[in-house]
From TrEMBL:
One of its GO terms (biological process) is carbohydrate catabolic process. GO terms for cellular component: cytosol. This is 6-phospho-beta-glucosidase. Gene3D superfamilies: Glycosidases. SUPFAM superfamilies: (Trans)glycosidases. It comes from the Bacteria. Belongs to the glycosyl hydrolase 1 family. Transmembrane segments: none annotated.
Length: 477
């Protein structure tokens, strides 16, 4: 492993920050996504949040209140030895409606203080510009990313943060898991569907607008500070053919392409041939401008980031397809060779090595794993400790496979930031009980708890992994 490898952890404003009505922040999409039975209909864009019951609970509004506790939390990250910390800005904290002439100074000052606290401990900030987060006013006025108007709003937001933090931040990520737009359109991009709309057309138009916005942001970043490194991100995890039937192999290839589509554009600068053919078959006609394709071609990303939780299987056999398991939003056929988490996510450490190789072979750009981890129910012992050996086992095997991809296969990897390094609200389910962290936060699914932070067993384990640059794992066969 490189000596400057960026070990750390990852969170997002919409899942941990809270303070939704403080510091001049405007409402964002996360603030209207409820906990409970209506969560998925809203995230899918099929149910209007305005139709929710008045007593609905919105877990993202207060989350774990990092808005007030960030100094305490960053001190714990520093104690673990973090070299970097990946987090996101809340767009509506900086532009409350998305269209102000000037950014909200209180919001910028909050993030400046946050970044300064990280730098005090020599922790490199890795910032996601847009992590499942759109100012609600832009949803109401323009239909969010359905409209090209969002491109200008996003670029103005980027201009404000690039200029403010040009001497304090090096690593930027334009959109979190950009391909989730296809699976949970409202959560991913603030997209709501009207009756009779062609959903596929709407989603790919929004995708085009985000891709152009990402390229324009990349161009702007390099103009403001040539040393900026701008990355893209996808929810990754290869599809395996369920069998050696060529039809299953072909189906797995096509399912992988669905995910690669966004990164093909961001890393290579043009729409791939398979996507153009798909548009023809589906009758999709994108609203574009001639300069879109120039800006896409001339402003590819510097590095590629991704989340990895599980691999998936693909088949054309309808009987087998019925035997699906849960996944990170995207359900998959159950792999008989793998165990699964309490939420049905298949545990596949070798899959992270396969994914690293697939992406590096395809793009030949530096990679960065910015999410990986095990969501599990943690039990506090009588003395307040949390013995999360299952989490240690999951991370140990994935990190070892990651190291093999670097040392044995030659993958160029910048860093590793496991997801939810401190317990936070689950993006998919809205639960607190689905915990990922090294740090336990006292809060339950209904929003009750003291918010007290405490170290889990995995806290010291990960601290040792970082201190030895991963070498400690060689003694943990």
């Amino acid at each position: 492993m490189r000596e400057d490898f960026l070990w750390g952890g990852a969170t997002a404003a919409n899942q941990c920050e809270g303070g939704f009505d403080q510091g001049g922040r405007g409402l964002g999409t996360v603030d209207v996504i409820p906990w409970g039975e209506n969560r998925f209909p809203v995230m899918l864009g099929d149910m209007d949040y305005k139709d929710l019951n008045e007593d609905s609970y919105f877990p993202g509004r207060d989350a774990i209140d990092m808005f007030h506790t960030y100094k305490e939390d960053i001190a714990l990250f520093a104690e673990m030895g973090f070299k970097c910390y990946r987090f996101s800005f809340s767009w509506s904290r900086i532009f409350p409606t998305g269209e102000e002439e000037k950014p909200n100074e209180e919001g910028l000052k909050f993030y400046e203080d946050f970044i300064d606290e990280l730098l005090k401990y020599n922790i490199e900030p890795v910032i996601t510009i847009c992590h499942f987060d759109v100012p609600l006013a832009l949803v109401e006025k323009y239909g969010s990313w359905k409209s090209r108007k969002l491109i200008d709003c996003y670029v103005a937001y980027c201009d404000a943060i690039f200029r403010r933090f040009k001497d304090k931040v090096k690593y930027w990520i334009t959109f979190n898991e950009i391909n989730i737009l296809l699976h949970l359109p409202f959560m991913g991009a603030g997209i709501q569907f009207k009756e009779g709309e062609n959903k596929t057309q709407v989603k790919y138009q929004a995708a085009h607008n985000e891709l152009v916005a990402s390229a324009k942001a990349t161009k702007l970043a390099h103009e403001i500070n040539p040393d900026f490194k701008v990355g893209c991100m996808l929810a990754a995890g290869n599809f395996y053919p369920y069998s050696c039937n060529p039809e299953d192999v072909f189906e797995a290839m096509n399912r992988d392409r669905d995910n690669y589509f966004f990164i093909d554009v961001q890393a290579r600068g043009e729409y791939p041939a398979y996507a153009k053919k798909m548009f023809e078959r589906e009758g999709i006609v994108l609203e574009t401008e001639e300069e879109d394709f120039i800006v896409l071609k001339e402003n590819t990303v510097d590095y590629i980031t991704f989340s990895y939780y599980a691999s998936r299987c693909a088949s054309t056999d309808q009987e087998i397809i019925q035997k699906s398991t849960a996944g990170n939003v995207m359900a998959s056929i159950k792999n008989p060779y793998l165990k699964a988490s309490e939420w049905g996510w298949q545990i596949d450490p070798l899959g992270i090595r396969i994914t690293l190789n697939s992406l590096f072979d395809r793009y030949q750009k530096p990679l960065f794993i910015v999410e990986n981890g095990l969501g599990a129910i943690d039990k506090e012992e009588a003395d307040g400790s949390v013995i999360d050996d299952y989490r240690i086992e999951y991370l140990k095997e994935h990190i070892k496979a990651m190291i093999d991809a670097v040392d044995e296969d030659g993958v160029d990897l910048l860093g590793y930031t496991p997801w939810g390094c401190i317990d936070l609200v689950s993006a998919s389910t809205g639960e607190m009980s689905k915990r990922y962290g090294f740090i336990y936060v006292d809060k339950d699914d209904a929003g009750k708890g003291t918010l007290k932070r405490s170290r889990k067993k995995s806290f010291d384990w990960y601290k040792n992994v970082i201190a030895t640059n991963g070498k400690a794992l060689k003694n943990q066969e």
